[in-house]
Structure formats: C-alpha cells, structure tokens
Amino acid sequence: MTRTALFCLFTLGLVACATPVKSPTPTPQTAGEPAMPKPAKGPAEGSVEALAGSVPVDLTPVPFEIARANFVRETAARYAIAPATIEATLAKANFLDSVVALMSRPAERVKTWAEYRPNFITATRIEGGRAFMATHRDELQRVQARTGVPAEIIVSIIGVETSYGGFTGKTRVLDALYTLAFRYPRSGNPERAAYEYKREQFFRDELAQLFALGREENLDIANLTGSYAGAMGLGQFMPSSYREFAVDGNGDGRRDLFTSYDDVFSSIANYFLKKGGVRGGWVRGGPVVARAQLQPGFTEFNPETWTPDYTLADLAQRGYRPLEAVAPDATATLVSLEGSEGKQYWLGFQNYYAITRYNNSKMYAMAVYQLSQAIAGKEIPPA
C-alpha cells in the first residue's frame, strides 16, 4: 500500500484480504458510525498515490472486449497464470451497478475536524477497542515487542477500518474489481479524464494482482468478500498491499488477513514499518504528535504533504512553538485542524507520517492516534 502523493487531496491508501478459518466475533456498530473513513473523493480503498505515471494522449476508453482480452494476455504473462484459468474466473465476474453508483457519488463538503472526529471516536468504539485488546492481549504484545508498533495503534486501525471485524464488507471482491477495472465511471469532464483513466488502470492492476494473490495464497478469489472497492479483511488490504505487506504471523505457512489474528496484527505492523519507503516507517518508541501554538503576527503554514521535513527551528521561524517537551533534534510537519473551539495546531512526527501511509489524510491519522490513546486509557483533548 507506498508511493508519494500526486493527488494528495484524495484521502486513501489501503490494504487487502485472506481466507476464513473462523469468524471474528463482530463488534456491534453504532448507528451513524461508519466502519471506514469517508474520504473527500472516491473510496477509501485504492490509493490515489499509486496513480503516478504516463497517460496516453488519446483517453478514449478502449472497447471492453479489447480491454478484457488485453488484460487476460498481460496478466497471464506477468504472473505465469494460464489464460484459460483467468478466463474461467472472469466468466464468474459480474458488473455491479451499485459499485459504479458508489464510485460516482459527488464529492462531499470536506468536514472540519470537529465534524470528522465523532465518526470515529465514540464510547462504543473506545470500549470495543478495549475489549478487543483484552481478548487478544498476548498476540498483540508479541507483535508490539517484535516490531515496536504499539498494540493500541494496531487495534485502533482495525477499529476505524472494520469496527474490530464487525464489518469487513459484503461485496464480492472479484465483482468490485472487475467493475472498476472495466467500467470505471467517466464524468465526461475533460479536466478529470486523466484522473479517471489512472483510476481505472489502478483497479485493473488490482484485479490482476488478485489473480496473483489467489495463486500465491491458495485462495478461491471468486468467493472473497470485502468493500465495494476491493479492500478485504480486518485491516482492509487491497490485493497489491496484501501481496507486498502481509506476513505469516503464526508460522503456519499462510497469510490469513481475515481470521488469523496473529497474521492480521503482524501485517498491519509490517505495513507501518515498510510503507514509508525511502522515508522510513514507524520508529520504535518515537512520538506521534505534540500540540503547538502559532504566535501572533505569523501567517498559518499548511504543508502540501505530511512528510516530517521541518526542524523545530524551521517551524519557529514560521511562528510555531511546541506546547510540550519535544526532542531538540526532532523534525516534524505542521498539522492544522478546525476544532470545536477554534484552530488546533499540531506537530506531526515520523510516526504520524507512518499512520498517513495507511490513509493519506491528516484527519484520519489524527483520529487513529487519538482513538488509540483513548483505548489505552489516556486522556485525549476535545475535538
């Protein structure tokens, strides 16, 4: 689920799937409490960061029959899968109007932090997280000791993404990816044509990687279910992220992100460690955020990305000073949030950046962090 943000105003970044062994105990979901974050545009699944690359001059969609035939030939060559096997599986796939409709929804007004946070930090989700962590304490502590990623962060991700396994999606993944790979909705707006082309290519690649995943993990990909955009399992991994970041946490020779908690916890931690690419991932024992204050007379600073590239001296020159103890050699990014009592300013460190690799949104990262702190019994500030 790592590449840099060419289209960073679309909040996404996902992950993938596995095979059932025994179903996780569902956690009841509060009415109005979404299982996954709702980004500004498009689904939470399917990283727009993955869309960098060349775009053909002619963006007229290729006829379906030709596109499908090309897909079979290229996927067979790329992953050494017999074309007949691909054809047989695609014959079971269905185009879903519901997926097209969901993907075509007009962008909502971008919510403020005060409006966004209550979707994720609720009494139900906090208590559910504490119960989930108590149930799986041993597995989580093993992963935390091995990777340095705190147990409460792993639990918070699962809580935000799927309400602790209570809602992992009911759409057949093959149908979702088949639909978006070959019938990605086109708006007819020339200014969006390149974006829509890249989105379709992204989902076409995810469909191809689903075939590779099925072969590698011995999965029946025609029966996997997940979100309407193809994300699967307790941590909502896309096929490409499943293949790249999932690990066998319990040593049974399989990577099961649906029902093996050892695998799920280890894979989420591994994602945090490795998704940062050359920038790096989670730092053991490192801070996530610290409150800051903008001094009078200075103009607000809004970085375009969440990479923690600014020294404390850099930020001081821009008028920001931390309101709590921070290591003098720390580097951070600046996070501005519209809270219920006015503007909030935060320094976001390397571990904050690591959370944004799961979903490229400053509010998503802050919600995950604050939920993790509440689950751990720590006090969190008001929205």
TrEMBL record:
Database matches in InterPro entries: Lysozyme-like_dom_sf (IPR023346), Lytic_transglycosylase_MltB (IPR011757), MltB-like (IPR043426), SLT_2 (IPR031304)
Keyword Transmembrane: no
Region Disordered, residue ranges: 22-46
SUPFAM superfamilies membership: Lysozyme-like
Keyword list, A-Z: Signal
Keyword NADP among UniProt keywords: no
Residue ranges annotated for the Transglycosylase SLT domain, each copy included: 67-373
Highest taxon of source: Bacteria
Residues of the signal peptide: 1-18
PANTHER family per UniProt: MEMBRANE-BOUND LYTIC MUREIN TRANSGLYCOSYLASE B (PTHR30163)
Protein name stated in the entry: Lytic murein transglycosylase B
Organism encoding this protein: Pseudoxanthomonas gei
Lineage: Bacteria, Pseudomonadati, Pseudomonadota, Gammaproteobacteria, Lysobacterales
